[in-house]
Amino acid sequence: MGGHADEGKGSVSRRGFLKSAGVAAAATSLIDDAKKAMEPVGPAPAAAVRGETEIRFKLNGKETVAKVPPSMTLLELLRERLDMTGTKQVCDRGACGACTVHLDGRTVNSCLLLAMDATGRDVTTVEGLAVGDRLHPVQQGFVEEDAMQCGFCTPGMVMSCAALLAKNPAPTRAECAEGISGNICRCGTYLNIFRAMDRASALAKGGK
Amino acid sequence: MNADDPVIPVDPQDPAQRRRRNQQDGARGGKPFKFGQKGDVREVAVNVPPDEPPPWQFGDTHAVVGQRTPRVDAVAKVTGKARYAYDMNLPGMVWAAFVRCPHARAKVTAVDYSEAMKIPGVLVAKDYGSKDIRYALQHFGVVAAETHAACLEAVRAVKATFEVLPHAARMDQALAPDAPRVHSERPNKTGDDFRPEAVAAFEKAAQGCDAVVTGTATTEVQTHMCLEPHGVTARFEAPDRATVWASTQATFGARGEVARVLKVPEANVTVIAHYMGGGFGSKFSLGVAGAAACTLSKELGRPVKLMLERRAEHAQGGNRPSSVQEMSLGVKKDGTLAAYKVSKTGTGGIGGGAGAANPMIYDFGEVAEADFEVATNAGAAAAMRAPRHPQGSFALETIMNLAAEAIGMDPLELRRKNDKHPIRARQYVEGAKRFGWDKRTASGSGKGPIKKGMGVASSLWYALGGRGAQVLCRIRKDGSVEIRNGAQDIGVGTKTILAMVAAEELGIPLSRVTPFLGDTNDPIGPASGGSTTAPTIMPAARTAAFMAGRSLREIVAKTWDCGADDLALGGGKVIHLKDRSKSMTFEKACALMPGDEIAELGKRTGNYAAYEGQTGGVHFAEVEVDTEDGTIAVTRYLALQDAGTILNPLTAESQVNGAIVQGVSYALFEERILDRQLGQQVNADMEMYKIAGPKDMPRAEVILTEVVNGANNVGVAGLGEGPSVPVAAAIAGAVHNALGFPVWSLPMTPDRVLAAIAGKEKGK
Ligand code: FES
Ligand code: FES
User: Per the confidence metrics, is the pTM higher than 0.80?
Assistant: First the structure.
């Protein structure tokens, strides 16, 4: 077989999959595009700009200085430069919540935030939620109600739940579901998370 | 029959066979033990192997085992301290990524890596793997760089030309008469057609039936979508050693593969999986990512991390095959099932293992089966929680519901009549009461646009597990205890029950025992598949703890001048059974040790001959179907599930909850969608590949049926598969009840529901 584009066209029509000319034309142009681009479609970091800038921010209460390239996300900074790997990378595009951290007390997907945009801000990660050995009520609730299996979504879940509890000290199940609706768990721990939140809410009120 | 003989599955529905086998066991002088469930406790003679404690039996009470116990690594997980393979940052570590082809079938004709090599930090950009592309996103090259970002940038800078070939990415395309062959050496469709005698027998039996119902069920491909991708961080240690942190369900299997890839002795390889972020059956091998990382690490002399990127997880990380199941079921007025015929076809992409397994829960009379597999230009299938079963269960339970309707019988009644399994027999009754089955209304009788329905489906699994594990128990002079096995905890709480079993056997609090899993320098353990991890490891753990405890008793016996058998461990003490005035704390006893520690290796022996080999479950679902927009909400769910001895109810329930959540997801949402023209997955991400989220959750309840199964000295069964089998089927049954007719295809997305409604209206 020789010319790629022609072969692409020819083979598609030979297989007889394309009934309508309109569909065939669209498909052909897509194949042409793929060929013309002559490169695999890869994830596209905007890393053309080189060089690094020094940023300062507060990380889990500590003043932190780091040198970052302009395209680096906060997630990459945490995981790859600062070795804070509690915050997880899963989808890297805002769809799963595994990378959730608190920025000035509000949840953000750290995979969507450029590290430079954390300059001067207050960042809390899952590593900074407990006070010494004393777990945050949400963490304690998760432990007691077994709101984890593999645990890979857990840090993000904990951070989303902690932010929710700060806003709403006694969320209903529906409010809790809304609060963590940006977080995906593949093992299926949501039912336990609802229970953990009830427990956390009681703990935060000083209950037992 | 001696306990070392391999397990021969016994048909639990055949009391004669059961009796025969038990007698055989007893004939050699076995001791009687009590096994079974409430209302059905049997004394069975067992030869307890030497060095093993007598089995836990029905009615035994435990101090640690059976308590709701938070997992031992829970704090590590909620504080972010748990380090996964993806989290390894080693000094000098290099990142790697694959270069992939977007086409479903192509030849890579030329590749230019020169631009990629110019990117700062890039160390390697080269061919890797076959240039014969057989599914979209198959890799043909690899890059390695100082940072992850440079790696991704390099991937994008690679230029390639492809000779695009005709593909058959979808099953209908692969079955077309002029379809291109996916594997040149064989036709796309392979498998076993009906045996003519079986069809003849089916037809004869069907003639004697009062109704023969027919239907075709279809299910789509779902992908595993583990949150932690497939991959490893590998460190080759010149000249001939390696340590690999792997996201794996089989540390020992991976160790062998690393050794082969690197050509080093297996003994020189350590595979570590202290934590792993989900596998569900898709992480049994080192995988392409693991092999590439090991190879690169050897080449570069530096540690290498290679984790599949998200879109590749869908394409390359495994999937549950699709199915088309054409069925006919003959039933008599009294509910007797007499004839069942099913033809199953499915695709597992370029891999195998497609199709469906109808769990043979009910007695169908004459059965004729055909089973086909269709190769397609799509990523290879992998085992996924109860491989082949959820799709088979969906089809089977749907046709059962139709049969019940045809003879005017309650669907639960039809199941009870045709299922003699002693555990499910009880679960049907208990579940119906608990769920309020009597409030179920006639199918399709609801008024208004939102219709409610209830469904039921049954589960079986094979309480597998057998030899293949050794466990080390170490008691130190300071009274601390270690319990060690090299297999992995894939998130189900294995580490916790390991410690609980040891604490129970040694009569000490759980806090005194430190469990270790996930390091191949510890004793051999199983791969986590087929619900075998707990039933394989735990009996060996109990034996190890028993042996270590016995050594401790022997030490104390010397000072008290009695026999070790006169002493027992319990309540944190060593006690004298005949002279109650004598007792010593566990720590004091440990301090008497002549050396620094007692270390004993417990071996998993075969299962007892009396073992019956199946677990049972019955699940109930309630739904609301909005007939205007086609959406389905699962409102309530009840799972009754047997898992033998429940070591930790808290984590066992979590595992069943997980099966329910994943089942809701499979029933309503999950579908790998391949573009017909390009053969590429259009939803290879986490926003368009929809899985169940927190708002899709029913109110769910889990009841763990207490069963002492007499398999071994612990009697635990796994929960990976059993509860995963019937969830979609139970939900589909509820939808059927709500609408008055079944929706024959999964996932029951709004378009499919509306199409089913429209089809029904047209048909009328
Ligand atoms: S990794 Fe940030 S949302 Fe998924
Ligand atoms: S616990 Fe595994 S993904 Fe949530």
Answer: yes
